């Protein structure tokens, strides 16, 4: 058995590559035979693993690899990748809501600008429809901050304003700053998982670890340097 310090690995049924479980999604067959994602890796029964991005999930569905791996009479309802993306998005927004409740979120242009100057900000958040002028001004402040700290600040632009409104129980949320700490870092990790799954350049950087250090930028990630 590998040492406890090493991440557990599983083999992707699409690529046949062994990867850490954090980079994979586990799927199981429900009692009715439907293939369902097990993002928390807790559901009982035999599971198969797929690299955690939409393209690999679609490939596994197209090539009927779930039935082969689960060794049973299973079925995949159309739109599996979209349903997984929705679960990732739901988890990310729930984590954002928890960050707000923990006092790890600042909203509003003026407050966000101030937070970028003197608070331990883990990420800058803009709604997709945020105006160019406001985004440019806050990004410039973030760049000046990066020059002082030597670390680029992740910028998140994967949510609509309406989604942010619902998650935060407020109206017209356009800009926000996620503060470092357990709640903020957990939310940023959820954002990163969603961005990785979507497989687009969504401008999401790595989260800070529990000791406040930043990880490197991974594929599909962008820092504000």
Task: Supply the key terms.
single chain; 225 residues; alpha+beta; Hypothetical Cytosolic Protein, Chain: A; 60s Ribosomal Protein L30, Chain: A; 2 domains; 5-stranded mixed β-sheet; 3-stranded antiparallel β-sheet; 7 helices; elongated; disordered C terminus
Summarize the structure.
The protein is of the alpha+beta class.
Notes on the structure:
- The chain folds into 2 domains: about 10-80, 2-Layer Sandwich (Hypothetical Cytosolic Protein, Chain: A), CATH 3.30.1230; about 85-225, 2-Layer Sandwich (60s Ribosomal Protein L30, Chain: A).
- Helix content is about 40%, strand content about 20%.
- It contains 7 helices and 10 strands.
- It has helices spanning about 55-60, 65-70, 80-100, 110-120, 130-150, 160-170, 180-200; strands at about 10, 20, 25-30, 35-40, 45-50, 105, 120-125, 155, 175-180, 225.
- It has a 5-stranded mixed sheet with strand order 6-9-7-8-10. A 3-stranded antiparallel sheet has the order 4-3-5.
- Helix 1 runs antiparallel to helix 3 (about 80-100) and helix 3 runs antiparallel to helix 7 (about 180-200).
- The longest helix is centred in the middle third of the chain and has 22 residues, at about 80-100.
- It is elongated.
- It starts with 8 loop residues before the first strand and ends with a strand.
- Mean pLDDT is about 85; it is low at about 205-225.
């Amino acid at each position: 058995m590998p040492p406890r310090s090493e991440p557990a690995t599983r083999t992707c049924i699409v690529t046949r590559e062994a990867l850490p479980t954090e980079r994979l999604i586990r799927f199981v067959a429900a009692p009715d035979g439907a293939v369902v994602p097990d993002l928390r890796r807790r559901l009982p029964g035999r599971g198969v693993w797929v690299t955690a991005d939409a393209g690999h999930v679609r490939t596994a569905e197209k090539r009927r690899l779930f039935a082969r791996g689960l060794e049973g009479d299973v079925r995949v309802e159309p739109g599996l990748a979209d349903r997984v993306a929705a679960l990732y998005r739901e988890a990310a927004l729930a984590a954002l809501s928890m960050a707000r409740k923990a006092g790890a979120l600042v909203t509003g242009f003026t407050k966000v600008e101030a937070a970028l100057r003197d608070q331990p900000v883990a990420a800058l958040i803009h709604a997709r429809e945020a105006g160019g002028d406001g985004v440019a001004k806050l990004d410039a402040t973030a760049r000046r901050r990066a020059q002082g700290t030597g670390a680029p600040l992740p910028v998140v632009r994967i949510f609509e304003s309406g989604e942010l409104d619902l998650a935060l129980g407020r109206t017209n949320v356009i800009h926000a700053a996620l503060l470092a700490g357990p709640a903020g870092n957990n939310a940023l990790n959820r954002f990163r998982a969603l961005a990785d799954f979507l497989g687009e350049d969504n401008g999401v950087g790595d989260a800070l670890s529990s000791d406040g250090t930043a990880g490197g930028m991974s594929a599909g990630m962008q820092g504000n340097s």
